[in-house]
């Protein structure tokens, strides 16, 4: 499914086109995709680019079809095989595969009984040195027999009218000496001496090529060779070099490869999962095993384990977001069809949420599980800081919260505007729907920093070290490590005034979030003007084939959340040496690495939307995350500190306050007119980098 512009109605009348201009017109293959796209525009719902259902094969482009095609299709004209990707294959894999096959062929010839397989390996050595433009076929033959003169007679002819006459890789029937016992002995020698080494080599090639992504055709080639070609009897394998205009008709084509690399494989998906997320999944396993098995740090240090844990958060956040999108997208379509909720429907909130009858629950579930990535890390860090009595962890959490807020307000929409502006000169968005998020953002920032402003007005300024710069008792003093003390007079100011204010704010902010949901999704849903159009969508008549079932999405969501908690625990366990030994300010570590790495999947989604001239979703991605940080994540952390006392207080440093408020004001000024270009995006990105420079050169917070 895809969001379309008003041009979808070009073949209709002008009246219809005018209605398309007023409304946000969407096109979708089926009801499930339509509801997923509709939820993308709604406040409080996770914005997701990937498809929830499988796209019909006939509706895909030729480029995408080629990605999923097996390497057994012979094209009439494959063009020149001398390409950069093919040369790369020769340098990375071809030469040593050729050498290995030659060595295995020599071993099989030495055994005498494995000579037929030795001949096969000799032919395959030349094939895998440069497999492009060649074909491997499985043919049906009679067992060759020896004539009285000793010549070998085969049951298949030596040439084919379509394959042409003699070729450099001409197939010759291999004569089997004896029958029965000799044949079994020959195969046993092959399976013991030849096949294991070659299968292991092809497995290594397969894994390496798959991880490189653009070389996935090589991975398919190696996998098919190990699982099909090497397990066939030698006389059933035919290797030929194809002519440009010839197509063989006899025999099953097992392998036929023309290109080793394809740059479009970044679009490749396995059961709806992007190939990048698939390749990063083993990283999660390595991180968990290395982190919990090597606790004394014998194999690797804390810095490596922290980096691995942080990188593992990226694919896990992708899986969580994808599971939420599939659960809610599918549930909305089914709920819309039924028009009511059953008890089982209510129990499976994640897998069957109806946007019509239970929209608030669906939005809250999206918000809570959408924030689970950050919350698991924050809570783990606060617990560790409380156990060690180290206030630095609480300051790092505050820096990460501020960094997420500033990054999602400035960097995410700014980067999307710059990249989208390269393709589109000017981009427009729904200023009214964006205004709702902006108003909530103003409210949330004001509420979150209200206790900080209150403490600065009524708190007592305490400095750790002061020097008289004028040698005059009444002159100027230079003080260091100053902060507002809230615990003066046995903490009367904090416990009697600041803490009640924090609890009050933590109750009002989630309530305001629910009011925003009710306003945008129920009473004023018309501000989105979402219109599902059936204009020239070739696959709209197909039934939906959902990638994941309800229970599968639910299990993946829970498992990803569990692994996320484990990775967050490992990250907080091994961050202490980095905080103590690093020369970089802890402020900078919090606002960059800890804040933005978990948001990388959201940034990628925003860029994809911007490239499709759908800047509304790119802006809403950043705004919704920022609103959730202030209205949901921070109140949850405050609630957590009630039941598990930690060093976390809702009093931020001046730098956090000024950076956040300035970012929100600038964002609202830029988005005031409902249109933008790459220049305005550049301004937002540059301001973000200026703030990062401020954090980089700022001294470490007190307590670190």
Structure in words:
The protein is mainly alpha-helical. It folds into two domains: 84-139 and 180-264, no CATH class; 268-332 and 353-469 and 476-535 and 543-697, Up-down Bundle (A middle domain of Talin 1). Helix content is 59%, strand content 8%. The chain has 23 helices and 14 strands. The strands form six sheets. The chain has a three-stranded mixed β-sheet with strand order 1-2-13, sandwiched between helices. A three-stranded antiparallel β-sheet has the order 6-3-7, with helices on one face. The chain has a two-stranded antiparallel sheet with strand order 4-5. Helix 6 runs antiparallel to helix 7, helix 13 (392-423) packs parallel to helix 20 (600-611) and helix 22 packs antiparallel against helix 23. The longest helix is centred in the middle third of the chain and has 37 residues, at 302-338. The two termini are 50 Å apart. Mean pLDDT is 76; it is low at 1-22, 154-178, 331-358 and 535-541.
